[in-house]
């Protein structure tokens, strides 16, 4: 009779199986680890930026006398000083400040949508998702303008040794500095913009599903939460791009 | 009966929707705005240099902390999840710093030994 008591006790520790050690759903965990791998990609871009910048001559004169030259790396606030509707006015970093504010605001409306999802408040989720779509779209529009201006160039352009002038930027030549400067601008802000575009499409899909009541019937708004994680990551990357590309 | 017409497992709202708890969210938002404003203050009042760059990087890390901890909710996850995200990120930061100084060395080598 006592043989039945010698059975092995079931293991009940955190990592013994049968439970969720990280207390997060499969989908959310996979989103976290995807974002981690994406952080490596962006990290690699910023590392290349730092390496390239430090392997070029810095500008050593006073900022007031700064001239564009392929000899040295440009001062960012001399490159990014245009604002739509203020042609020829020197407004250093003003437009990028506006873009940063718009993206931070979109992050806030996103987290408000996630919060509303936890309360199963369909109307609030719709409202905040719509605001996020609006701010995200505005950011993308701003970036399109920024690219157009960067590619078109300024009125003066850059004076070359042979007396000719270069206007704007492409992959081979740009008026702002060494060719690598424009290449990295296109790759880093372009890759970020691509992420924002994907996030924006996901937000539109989530909005349509919310309006149709898909998540409400499911009993939870976890999809909004997962897209939210992605959207905040895009904001996070912008914080770093902003510092390393525009400020330093 | 077709599967799609079975609504017995559907969620049905019972009772009142709780009130929104948004105090922490807006507080985080104002912290992020304030940190960005401080960054611009330094950008316009201070001459470029190592010190200013260090200030920018520290402020950026603060901003990153608030976004990841509050907006992405990582602060409220389990310890194991927090560490599995933070450790790889810390390592990549290390690589970033290492390669920036490597860039300076590479530049020095070219200018001093090949020109």
Automatic annotation (TrEMBL), chain B:
- Key word Transmembrane helix present: yes
Task: List where in the cell it is found.
Answer: Cell membrane
Major location category of this protein? membrane
Mind listing the UniProt keywords for this protein, alphabetically?
A: Cell membrane, Membrane, Transmembrane, Transmembrane helix
Membrane topology term reads:
Multi-pass membrane protein
Q: Quote the Pfam families the UniProt record gives.
A: COX4_pro (PF03626)
Which parts of the chain span the membrane according to its record? 24-44, 50-68, 80-100
Has keyword tRNA processing? no
Q: What is this protein called?
A: Cytochrome C oxidase subunit IV
